[in-house]
Give the backbone structure.
Amino acid sequence: MSLPHTLVWSAVFLLLPGFARAGEAVDLFNGRNLDGWDGDPALWKVADGVITGTCTGPGTPKHNDFLIWRGGVLKDFELTVTMRVLGDNNSGIQYRSRSLPEVGPWAIAGYQCDVHPAIEHTGMTYEEKGRGIFGLNGKSVMLDPEGQRWLVAEHEPVEVDVSEWNTYTVTAKGNVLEHRINGRLTSRLTDCDEKGRALEGLLAFQLHSGNANTVEVREVKLRELEGGGILPFVLPEGATKIAKPTTSRPQGLGKSAPANAAPGKP
């Protein structure tokens, strides 16, 4: 897609009613303990002022586990998180999500900003235990009312090392979701699938099962936005129908994982 398409859809997003910030950002992590958060105490703790989740390998945890914010249900917001993932695995920022008590007390399904060592996956839009990958890093995607994916714009993928501290920003406004890393856009999703989408839900951090890994979060800031409207399904000129993206690296990079990205790296 050409640059003008990207600029047009950025402008549309900014013109959504109520996009203006509703108030000052609030810290959701006090830097001392997990007050306001709910997770398995065997997996999550605060160490040296940092939220830390640890997977020691296959079976611990048995399935993806989550640290859930219990401060309420989020609708339209801007969330800024500084975090990193150590080890050959990935994590994610869950939002507008729902609990799955039939799976476990800390199981979650819903939208995710992926924090993944594979460049094409980090910052992408994904739905945990749901519709899967929507758009990879560098893609802006629209879902039609039947859930079909349409590529509406492309931009340069953002390359980062997820084992280093990076700042992830999630902006949810109506049915438009944007992810940024260090201020640069990674993906945008316009979800016109009324049956499948969520307009509100829980916030959480993912601890991925499988390969040993450590998730560290040191800053979580939330700015709630005024309520806004829903974009209708109108494809821009040049949009192309795409298949649901798949991955051969559901956890990390496998044999190509960097040797220095090990749990416990200072």
In short: The first helix runs from residue 3 to 14. DSSP finds one helix and 18 strands in the chain.
